[in-house]
Amino acid sequence: MASAAPPDIDRILFTEEQVTARIREVAAEIGEKYRGRPLKLIAVLKGAVFFLTELARALEIPVKIDFLAISPFRGSAPGMVRIAKDLDDPIQDEDVLLIEDIVDTGFTTRFLLQTLAGRAPRSLAICTLLDRTVRRIVQVPVDFRCFEIPDRFVVGCGLDYQQLYRNLRYIAVLHPEVR
Ligand code: IMP
Ligand code: MG
């Protein structure tokens, strides 16, 4: 059984069981779409790593994984990011699935999509654990998503508040006083 939630947590949105069950469903959808073709999963460090590993283990098609890291340009407008650590390998002619922890305003996802599309993958799609469409500013095509969430800051399953709480096995809303 999970131990008591930390004091900064307001309420649990999705339990560990709900998250695991939903990831299995989405993995089945993905397996159906790619039908045995090898798939390259690409995640952005660090938030999406937890989701990537759970999704990868639920997939029954052959998968490869790679990672990149981004960091904001200091003092710049929202969504202005740069690549801090690039992929290890090219993605040319591969079926690529970009794995996101959350698509919020859409700025980060759009940057990543443009960057990856420029490298001539065979196909490029997005799979996100969480989708907060109410805050979307730029439109991005979300091909697979586990959960739509309300306009509240959440932690757990890879998502952090000041680098904490990534390891929570559930998705929780942070107390409004904390943030
Ligand atoms: P964007 O606004 O769609 O560009 O999202 C940028 C990034 O902000 C996400 O990849 C997350 O790392 C972070 N983020 C957005 N909303 C939350 C949240 O509710 N909890 C934790 N991190 C978040
Ligand atoms: Mg963060």
Features:
single chain, about 180 residues, alpha/beta, 6-stranded mixed beta sheet, 3-stranded antiparallel beta sheet, 3 helices, binds inosinic acid, binds magnesium ion
So what's the oligomer here?
Answer: single chain
Regions with little confidence, pLDDT below 50 for 5+ residues = none
The value of Rg in angstroms is 16 Å
* Strand numbers in spatial order across the main sheet: 4-3-2-5-6-7
Write the element-wise H/E pattern from the N-terminal end onward: EHEHEEEHEEEE
What general outline do the C-alpha atoms trace? globular
Give me the count of strands.
9
The profile of the biggest β sheet is: 6 strands, mixed
Overall residue-averaged pLDDT value: 94
- Percentage of residues in strands: 25-35%
Counted by DSSP, the helix tally is 3
User: Which ligands, by name, code or SMILES, are bound?
Assistant: inosinic acid, magnesium ion
Would you tell me the structural class of the helices and strands? alpha/beta
Percent helix, as a range, is: 10-25%
Straight-line distance between termini: 28 Å
Task: Describe what this molecule looks like in 3D.
There is one protein chain. With 179 residues, this protein is of the alpha/beta class. Helices cover 22% and strands 32% of the residues. It is built from three helices and nine strands. It has helices spanning 16-34, 49-58, 107-117; strands spanning 9-14, 39-45, 63-72, 81-85, 95-103, 123-131, 144-148, 154-155, 171-174. The chain has a six-stranded mixed beta sheet with strand order 4-3-2-5-6-7, sandwiched between helices. Strands 1-9-8 form a three-stranded antiparallel beta sheet, with helices on one face. β3 and β4 (81-85) form a beta hairpin. α1 packs across α2 (49-58). The chain is globular. The model has no long low-confidence stretch (mean pLDDT 94). Inosinic acid (IMP) binds at residues 47, 79, 101-109, 153-155, 159-160.
